Amino acid sequence: MKKIPVSAAALSAVLLALAALTALSGCTKQPAADSTAAAAVESDRLNIYCWTYYVPLSVREKFEEEYGVTIIFDEYDSNETMYAHIQAGGSGYDIVFPSGDYVSIMIKQDMFERIDHSKLSNLGNIDPLVLEKTTYDPNMEYSVPYYFGAAGIAVNTERIPNYDRSWSIFARNDLRGRMTMLDDMREVMGDALVFLGYSVNSKNPAEIEAAKDLINHTWKPNLVKFDAEAPGKGFANGDFWVIQGYAEMVYEEISEAQKATTVFFIPPEGGPAYIDSMCILKGAKNIDLAHKFIDFIHRPEIYAEFTDYFGFPATVNIPARDLKTQEPYYTAEELLRTELKDDLGESLDLYNTAWFDSIRIGE
Hints:
By secondary structure, the chain is an alpha/beta fold. Helix content is 39%, strand content 15%. It has 14 helices and eleven strands. Strands 1, 2, 3, 4, 10 and 11 form a six-stranded mixed β-sheet that branches. Helix 3 links the parallel strand 1 and strand 2 (70-76). Helix 7 crosses helix 8 and helix 8 (205-219) packs parallel to helix 14 (348-359).
């Protein structure tokens, strides 16, 4: 059963209410004891802010049992949502899972605690080839890679037996009203850029304009909507026949029978790739416990369990590859065609203007 997240604010309200009741009952106030009790509650709880469908419940339960703690697990559907929430004061989290471009942004804005390598015994399991790609934090000073992957396309082959493995599928007028793409600026615009032969990190205004026009005039008219919250549910119930998304959001929702008529692929044109990392937020209350969780994830047997659950290749953790028991829904080789999203600096404004002032208008 999915656990209901309990916010730090809600817990604080409960503690305040209990303190008020104690005062009304005539008990002698003991600030030191109250402070100690509150600290004990905090130390028994790890607050994680993570992508939807990203840490299996079985993994979280194993960590809770081993360390005698409770994980409070809140979810987000895009980097933009996560970043805006934390910027707006959504504090109280210990660990967050941003993609590389946002790791870069958040490091520059001093939003993370430093990673204490002396508290991590499993960093040696991380693939050096993945670390080479983390140019924003190559020495893992502020981030530890969690997963290297990419979004792709899921197709209901019972409804669409003939199709091209290409982003051009979204130009098919015969599938109008049966397709969705992610509500994610860098993903959708990155797909359009690579389809046109450009980099997902283009800073060329003419190329970005061309990508905007392709989405607005060729792809968007065929879409039901841009959706990053529940496209897998719509795919599972038959409302959508083609969706752009992540493998886990599809396979977590469809039945075993539906898996036989579902194909997931990363188009040969490539697309945006991501390295999501585990980072400890500045001011985290449970820094030691956060380090324990990061190290726990990179135990080979735990990483194999995580990737098996979601049908991932074990892209980041080398020894976990020998412990996997399930075939992944896509291969690590398909990722060779992809390109990591970079921090675009001031050029991000070009994307924001195209996305929010044009593409997303009317949604």
